Amino acid sequence: MHEQIRKRCLELGELVQETGLTVRAVAKKSGYSKSTVHKDLTERLTLVNDALAKEVSQILAYHKSIRHIRGGEATKQMWKQKEENTEKTP
Question: Is this model's pTM higher than 0.70 or not?
Answer without folding.
Answer: yes
